[in-house]
Predict the 3D structure of the following.
Amino acid sequence: MNVPRVSVVIPTFNRARLVGLTIDSVLAQTFRDFEIIVVDDGSTDDTTALLAGFGERVRVLRQPNQGMNPARNAGLAAARGEYVALLDSDDLWEPYKLALQVELLDRFPDAGFVFSEFSVMESDEHGAIGPRRAQGLRSWHAVRHDWSKIYRRTFTATELALREPDFNFNVYEGCVYERSLYQPMVLPSTTLIRGAALARHALQLPVNVETHGDWEFFARLSRLAGALFIDVETTINRSHEDAVRLTRADPRRRLARRIAMIDRVWRADAEFNARRETDINAVQRQLLVRLARMHLLESDAPAARAALRRASELAGGLRSAADWATLCLAHLPGGGQSLRALRRLISGRG
């Protein structure tokens, strides 16, 4: 059996109405040397019948429902290609996506993965597509980045004489580990990963967290193996709501997991923590205050007290817990009237 250059891994769960178009977008690629691995994570809808319709063009792995990252890891373990592409079952690819990214990883052998900008397309409950919004990655970030200050080197597509697509754009070489402390930098569906980099570092997506797993994975991979960023949209992120989306999780739990991820990744990195402890503290303080405010809105006084106490500790003694409480209350209706009671709460007397 011929070994494909690229393995495309598509995890899915109860998305029969969406995954067919996702697979079609892979089959429409101008680059043809690939295999498609769909990991059916215990679907109970019509996914089995839908996938059967693709015949031998798709290799299907089935497992009991375990979640997105275990399904991705199962696909990575089964992948035979030199390069591996992750594609969520509600996203689509532009036809030039694989051709462009394979060429770049071939040209930059030290890069562990390549990723890109993406567009966002509204999708209704039946998977029908609507208007597209450009620059989805930039919409994640409150501050407009100068990409050249994040990465080491910048190239143009014209300078590199890239074969696809036939318009000019920038390609950046470097690392997104540091910037990932502040915000997510990588949409998994835009990536192409060098299989040797995963094997060399024995890297998998974390399986014990429901959210932020891909954020952590690509931050770590960038730190270990480097990255390329293409400032062109190779992927269409279908914006929709269904029971499967991880963004439906309790926002307090998501925020607590992000705080824990920072402890697990950047604070546990002795070299990085020695250089950037002040920045790590500042990011976590902000998140902890936001988390405390959410707990207050849900009348969870012990959890709010715990978050504010840690925020105070990370302030290095510059602010008291009551000062952080004031900041929280500034964002709450009628906050000024509750400040005295909240100070008692934080001191343990309320």
The first helix runs from residue 16 to 27. The longest strand covers residues 227-239. The chain has a mean pLDDT of 89. Residues 6-248 form a domain with the Spore Coat Polysaccharide Biosynthesis Protein SpsA; Chain A fold (CATH 3.90.550.10).
